[in-house]
Amino acid sequence: MNRRARLPDLLIWVVIGVILAVAIFVSIGQAFRPYATLAEAARSRRAMQIKGTVVEGTLREAGGQVSFEFRDSAGTTAQVRLAGPMPPRLPEAEAIVVIGQSAGDGAFVARQVLIRCPTRFRD
Amino acid sequence: MKVERPGPAGDAAGDLEYGSGGVTAMGWPAVLAVGMSATIVAAFLFVPPVRGLGATTTILFFHVPPAWVAVSAWLLSLLHSVLYLRRGDLRSDRKAGVHAELGLVFCAITVVTGAIWARGTWGVYWNWDPRQTSALMLLLIYFAYVGLRGTIADPIRRARSSAAYAIFAFAGVPFLMFVVPRAFPSLHPSPIIGGGAGGGLGPAARIVFAASLAAFTGLYAWMYGIRLRLEALAGRPAHRDTALSGGLDGLVPDVGAGSEPAPTGDLAVAATLAVTRFS
User: Fold this and answer.
1) Radius of gyration, CA atoms only, chain A
2) What is the rounded CA–CA span in Å between residue B269 and residue B279?
3) Which of A61, A100, B161, B216 is deepest in the core (most CB within 10 A)?
């Protein structure tokens, strides 16, 4: 079989591959979205994970509680309260994930804060 | 028309070339041991801790290189699978199987070291982060490949099904390894190579990283040689083979007159022979 005759076969396989890739992306894409937004948390009573950043200069520790202003990936901000001591590396964290529930007063009560790894491996 | 070649002793002998030379068999593990030890020492002593990571910085050198090796192994598995489908040579199927299997081992190393690193930096071992989920999916996809190979006894049917599966399995690798980390928000850092201006390695870390990559690649090559020899020995019609006569004379049990012939493809005997050869 010559190269020219094989070309339509190859094209069919490429089209099938692209369709499969799109189908996989759409169907399992949800599995890669573990992080919600503050707006979604406010609408839900379930515990959620929200990825965002600490607004600079707002981190406080008092009375066995840590609090800070938190900005999610959509740009919404809310006060976050976390019972317990200051998590290590929180003050210099590039990004964080807060895990918890929305409180009635518009704040977010976190039971855990995860710190994102830095991307820069040099000092 | 394509001709299926079942791979008799001659084919197996071809695979036995990997690591069968005296100097290679003795020297390669020694070089590897020295290289890996030097990498470990350098990772702990010469790379300054990165701000925000502290002592966990060291895990980088044992987390990223195995991931690169795993992807390379799966790519090689894909290439040998395509070669098998084109030529019908069972040696290609054996190589595809070994590459996929070892890719699985190195991916498992990546997942375990990643979980340890996550505990040290994020605060938890596992968070269903996109990077963790995608790595787990790849593990499951290639576990299924190994399972598939294990369930089909007929070598030709096994080779055909495995080759077709390997091609579809690899289709998911670029998506899960390269698209997911860039397309979804994650706690995982951006790729250290090509991850943007804010990323990258310092001079000392770059050298140790290259050494670690070389060491893991060498480890892979060594394991591949042993595993391929085992596969070839397990698939041969008799345990005694002229290709091994130089190194295994006197070690191979005599299956001559008066004794019960050993079963063909007895993996346990093959493993014993290979371990004796490499010890």
Assistant:
1) 22
2) 15
3) B216
Closest-CA distance of chain B to residue A66, Å: 16
**How far apart, in Å, are the Cα atoms of A63 and each of A69, A79, A83, A85, A107?**
17, 16, 9, 9, 17
Here the tokens at position B138 are 């790849």
Find chain A residues with C-beta within 8 A of B127's C-beta. Answer: 34, 49, 97, 114
In the chain, the amino acid numbered A6 is: R
Structure tokens at A42: 């406010």
- Report which secondary-structure segment, H or E, holds A70: strand A65-72
pTM: 0.75
ipTM: 0.70
Q: Minimal Cα–Cα distance from B209 to chain A, Å?
A: 11
Rounded distance between C-alpha atoms, residue B50 and residue B99, angstroms: 34
* Joined tokens for residue B9: 């002793």
On whether the CB atoms of residues B81 and B162 are closer than 8 A, the answer is yes
Contact A24 B172 (CB under 8 A): yes
Cβ atoms of B229 and B20 closer than 8 Å: yes
Q: How far is CA A14 from the centre of its chain?
A: 33
Question: Does the beta-carbon distance from A97 to B199 stay under 8 Å?
Answer: no
Of the candidates B38, B275, B237, B80, the residue with the CA atom closest to the CA atom of residue B166: B80
The 3-state secondary structure of chain A reads CCHHHHHHHHHHHHHHHHHHHHHHHHHHHHHHCCEECHHHHHHCCCCEEEEEEECCCCCEEECCEEEEEEEECCCCEEEEEEECCCCCCCCCCCCEEEEEEECCCCCEEEEEEEECCCCEECC
How high is the mean pLDDT in each 10-residue block of chain B (279 residues)?
Answer: 47 46 66 94 89 83 95 97 95 96 97 93 89 92 94 93 93 86 81 61 88 96 94 64 38 38 41 42
- B198 Cβ under 8 Å from any chain A Cβ: yes
Q: Are B104 and B112 in contact (CB under 8 A)?
A: no
Q: Nearest by CB to B52, which of A24, A25, A89?
A: A89
For residue A73, the chain B residues in CB contact (below 8 A) are 185
Whether B198 sits inside 8 A of A120 (CB atoms) is yes
CA dist B262 and B255 (Å) reads: 7
Instruction: Point out the residue among B52, B128, B168 whose CB comes nearest to the CB of A118.
Output: B52
